[in-house]
Here is the input.
Amino acid sequence: MNDTELDAALGLLRGTPPPLRETENAIWRRAQATAQGPSPVRQVAVFALATAAGIGAVLTVAPLVRAPAPARVVAAPVETRIEPGPGAEWSRDGRAITLARGRLRVTSPVKVTVTTPLATLEAKGARFTLDVAAQHVVISAEMGELLVRSQLTGERVVRAGERLVVEAQIDAAARVLPAALLRAPEPTGPRSACGAELDCLTRTAKGDTLAAQLALFDLGLAASLRGDREQATQLWRQYLTRFPDGALAPEVSGALIRALVVADPVEALAQAERYHARFGAEPSAGGVELLRAHLLRDVGGRPEDGCALFEALTAQRSIAVRGEALYQSAMCRQAQGDVAGSAARLDELRRVAPESERNAR
Amino acid sequence: MPQFHDATADVAASVRELYVELAPGIARSLGRLVQPGVPVDDLLHDVFVVALRRPETMLRAESPRAWLYGIAMKVAVGARRKQRLRQLLGLADAREPTMPLDPARTLEQREAQLQVTRALHRLDPKKREVLVLFELEGLTGEEVAAAVGCSLNTVWTRLHRARAELKQKLLQLETVDQVSARRTP
Here is the structure.
């Protein structure tokens, strides 16, 4: 096809009637009517302005109509106030309180007596927390003084800021490990808003929010405090499955490892290795690392690795971790026949952590 | 008694004159630049709504004709985009172009018209715009450049390529028709 043929072909299209269904006049009248109406630009501008004005009004008025926050009133307690933790089993008869299991926070301006399976305490004008589990009682004084009597510790005074742990005989499998390492650490971060309400915790734990994570962690802690390790591990495993990168994943992993140490030390070691890989750099990893060292040496059949880890942990800043690491390092050196090295480590332990329970041994 | 000159009425009259003069050509161009099945009446309406809302801009332009065709090109681009979306969503089918009935043409001429229209619709839209405005609507090179928003050199390049491509498409369609005719008993 040449240019002339193409021009001839295009000539067929020139001057064809326009492909219109309406008459040209009808389209013109329609266009005139549309042009006289509001322009789309103006409509968009009016809509945007109206939206902005609405948002502005809401932002201006909302703070005015919002109910004022209740003033915080700090009043001196006039009677004994008891705040039970999730799953706490307790009773009260006048000024005598009995706590069989779980956690209680007590604020008492008057003299009260609290009886637990492992210890009895008396307090007046004090605020304190008691954690009772199958193997131990933890007594933490926040205000005032407590007089603690126990067949295991004798008579002790616990002052504000101090903490006393009364331990029962622990499981045979756990004897190789210091009991302190097996306890879940006190949660230092935010706690679930549900407090001790198990129903609320269970309900809240179903969501995907941070509140759900806190509630699930607290449910596990409550089970652990009840002595129900199986339930606690099941709840914490559930947490790690649902929230593998959750805000509390390091705490939950640590708690799970502690709960597993007695029941399934091999699984505990595997979990501790995973913890080391993921959270080894966390500031609070020292406790779990100590457990890993114990498990490597006493369960995993890798005494060299365990002892090397104890050595490494003697450089930790935490006195508790460093003290235990020094003691275990001394034991490792003794086992290797390095009596002088072992004695040097024990000397260091006395210097660094003079109050460590290990010094008594 | 002094006679007051009504400027608004003059402007409206000018737009109306342009409508009468250019509406058929703009409607034809729109029909050739959008997919078959898109209502050209509405597109023509949209073009002149813009003209009626901005008559001063149009009348001050170097070539009001080029300005109006430029608006038509933009309206056609929008319509093509909408139609593609409708086809993607399954709300519209792709159709073959048809020709309005022209009693002045013979059957053979109408078939040939349809063939050229089909070939035209297979061109790249940018080349098609230039070919339609220059070859079919008789705009000058400068007017086409103003309407499609490119340089004059680009207009000539596109036109050259569009003609070459159109020849190729027509030959392809002829071949296909010949093959179909042989198969039909």
